[in-house]
Amino acid sequence: MTLRQVATEAGVPPRQLQYYFGAREHLLLGALEILNADAERRAAERMDELGADPSPRALVRAVLLELLPLDDARREAQVVHAAYFVRFLTDPGLAASVRDSPPALEELVASLLRHGQDLGHTSDAMNPEAEAAFLVAGAQGLQPPVLLGQCEPARAVELIDLQLNRLFP
Fold first, then answer.
1. Based on the domain organization, do 143 and 69 belong to the same domain?
2. Does residue 164 register a pLDDT over 70?
3. Domain of residue 115, residue span
4. CA 133 – CA 95 distance, rounded (Å)
């Protein structure tokens, strides 16, 4: 898609779009930021539904379930993310813009696992960083099979719960 096509679709002059975004790559990254902010807002709303003082396990579970296409909004977002992923594979400039970003989800899950350790909900011998990396990668790895219909969403949730049961006995 060209800047001109995006401008036409948005109903703004192409020059205005160029003024705000510059190159097409900046437009793509800006759109990705909007998509991520919207997903974070919806995730925060679902986290609020957990109540005033959710357990670390419940919070980790909620974070991981956000990565699964369990409803239309998450499914659509993950399809768009998949398109971005393919673009990142073929465009080194765009890939560089995300490659060096900190692994925020892993850091969040690790902090929740450490909190679980502090509360005595998980083993002190557990490595929160390694477990967080595994959990996030596992949830992300379930996305394609669920999107393709090879794995039922309920089965994906069950697999997440099995891992959490291992960490939070």
1. yes
2. yes
3. 50-167
4. 20
